[in-house]
Amino acid sequence: MAVRDNHPEPLPAIAGGEPVRETYLPYARQWIEEDDIEAVARVMRGDWLTTGPTLAEFEKQFAARVGARYAVAFSSGTAALHAACFAAGVGRGDEVITSPITFVASASCALYLGAKPVFADIDPRTYNIDPVEIEKKITPQTKAIIPVHFTGQPCDLDAIHALAEKHNLVVIEDACHALGAEYKGQPIGCLSDMTVFSFHPVKHITTGEGGMVTTNSGELYQWLLLFRNHGITRDRELMVEDQGPWYYEMLDVGFNYRLTDIQAALGLSQLRKLDRFLERRREIARTYNEAFASLPEVEIPYQAPYSRSSWHLYVLVLKLEHLKFDRRQVFEALRAENIGVNVHYLPVYRHPYYRWLGDPDSCSLSGFYCFHAEELYERIITLPLYPAMDNEDVNDVIQAVRRVISWARK
Ligand SMILES: *Cc1c(COP(=O)(O)O)cnc(C)c1O
């Protein structure tokens, strides 16, 4: 509050001032260094471009990093979600419960298999799916729960596992934001039936495109392998017969969802840097928290005592009652400062496809409507956060937020 009286902020760019910075600062991006490029080049000079030893090594080291028995790499996080649903036995007529505040892929994976996504509202403090709301949505058709660790903060997993046990459901964590996060001191990746990660360039480590499923179950592991490779196996234990050394069998309808060794080389090289990346993300989040805690017009991200976030996203919540402008105007003012703010996410069921799915005639949202998700969506802005940001970038974001909020306050 002292900020208001003692240090009047300069006019923001949207009101005719100079922008905080000249160049556009994206909300997220990869960090590729020379040794990453070298690692990729080494594989390209070798014998195996796909499904070779580098892929196997990436899976092995990734599994070890998250404390899981098995890891299976896929061509994207979305392919990994699809495979996890398949391995869970999700099929036509089943229901899969997930959060509305997520990327569309957390729900599309159910649609791919002819199942119905069902949205359970979020906890208004953590913005993660609320176990109490999950229980309300469980029916005899429910097959799986896909909790999403939004922004990298783990969901209330003990409560979710208790529900899963009681109702015999499979838990597939969407940990695409949460590589390196911890729940009650344990790494995300070894706590549920399956856990899904993404290696898109905005995520913690990248392979260009790529994803991973981790599991402790040997049986789920077999289904994941099968699905990634056309439903084909050469494993004699699984085959119906064995006609000779050339012989393989297709046991189900699978896809080509393989990750190349070229990508795995990049993944392995990036994985070695994960601790450094996490450290820097946490440091930036702390700096933001310290800068914004005293601004009465915004809420900094609440962190539950059981979670240690991996800070994929930093989401600032506007207290609109203290502002004379809405989220859109604040957003546009920050963009005018060359700060690449974003919004994560529109509640998934608000996309036109779901409106048509919900009720083709009236486009009604009644079946899906989640009060807290709606409330949150109106007020959120994602600030830039990635390890390659330097201190000046971080400072530009803080200056821009202070300037814009000062202009927007009532
Ligand atoms: C990125 C992301 C995905 C999809 O991952 P891709 O690798 O882009 O296919 C799924 N769920 C969430 C929550 C994500 O952030």
TrEMBL record:
It comes from the Bacteria. GO terms for molecular function: pyridoxal phosphate binding; transaminase activity. It is an enzyme of class 2 (transferase). One of its GO terms (biological process) is polysaccharide biosynthetic process. The modification N6-(pyridoxal phosphate)lysine is found at residue 203. Pfam families: DegT_DnrJ_EryC1. Keywords: Aminotransferase, Pyridoxal phosphate, Transferase. Gene3D superfamilies: Aspartate Aminotransferase, domain 1, Type I PLP-dependent aspartate aminotransferase-like (Major domain). Its EC number is 2.6.1.92. The active site is at 203 (proton acceptor). This is UDP-4-amino-4, 6-dideoxy-N-acetyl-beta-L-altrosamine transaminase. It comes from Desulfofundulus salinus. The gene is pseC.
